[in-house]
Amino acid sequence: MQNNSITDLFGIQYSIIQGGMVWVSGYKLASAVSNCGGLGIIGAGSMYPEVFREHIQKCKKTTNNPFGVNIPLMYPAIDQLMEIVIEENVKIVFTSAGNPNIWTAKLQSYGITVVHVVSSIKFALKAQQAGVNAIVAEGFEAGGHNGREETTTFALIPMVKQKINIPLIAAGGIATGRGILAAEVLGAEGVQIGSRFAVSQESSAHIQYKKLITRLQDGDTQLTFKELAPVRIVKNQYYQKLLALYKTHPSKEVLQSFYDEAKLKTGIFEGEVEDGKIEIGQIAGLIDSVASVSKIMEDMLKEYQTVKQQLN
After folding, report:
1. pLDDT of res. 46
2. What pTM, to 2 d.p., does this model score?
3. Which domain range does residue 264 map to?
4. Burial of 216 (0-12, 13-18, 19+ CB in 10 A)
5. Second label for 170, Cα 20 to 30 Å away, from 156, 160, 196, 201?
């Protein structure tokens, strides 16, 4: 992979960014990706402020390369998290699930590079107007929270590319060298990869979660909770209970109560994979092993170069 606006922006070797996933993206995963030349991301979405600070400090000790953090802007302790970012001198922040206008300028005043995750042209333009340094455009193939528009990555990336003039990172359904090359052809200068790194040895997810993902096939995930905040989950017992709940024509309050149960931690972090809320992307059908980050990066880069040479 060649140097481009993304490698220059973050000071990294390869324009591969690891997704900041809840209950998955701790300092071990982030530092491993950064040590392999990509950009590791600590996911703050499942961390109390003091835990977040601890992971940042441990990441500093385990990598000398750039790393970043992902902060969902709807997080209740957002002020504390942002103060920790500033106090710990974190240089790269990915924001999501909220208005980038609120924090972008303040973070940049401390020399912090800000990237915002979007799912549509509309929000890409708003993020650019807010002054972010780059945009992640995520198709609805992705695991976890998704856009309501249900626009696929193949459709979203070229449309966003037409409308913005800042660096563009593709996300959603990318887990291989072929996928990275396809994203580049569509106009992205970098990729953000979640699901493949979630099933790495360094991921903080439970081993039962990782083993489950390696058994999934196409069609084994579904975008749900569209009335609240759309989220892609595995079709397990928890999902079947949700289908049964929908048949009762529940109110938003009842759905919210079901959604709020502590099933995300139970499923991903504690390994209760049948009755837990298991978030993963559609690309899970291509993931058949639990491998180290170094092996995952090596395989992706090798396939990328091979396919590129074949096309040439």
Report:
1. 85
2. 0.94
3. 207-282
4. buried
5. 201
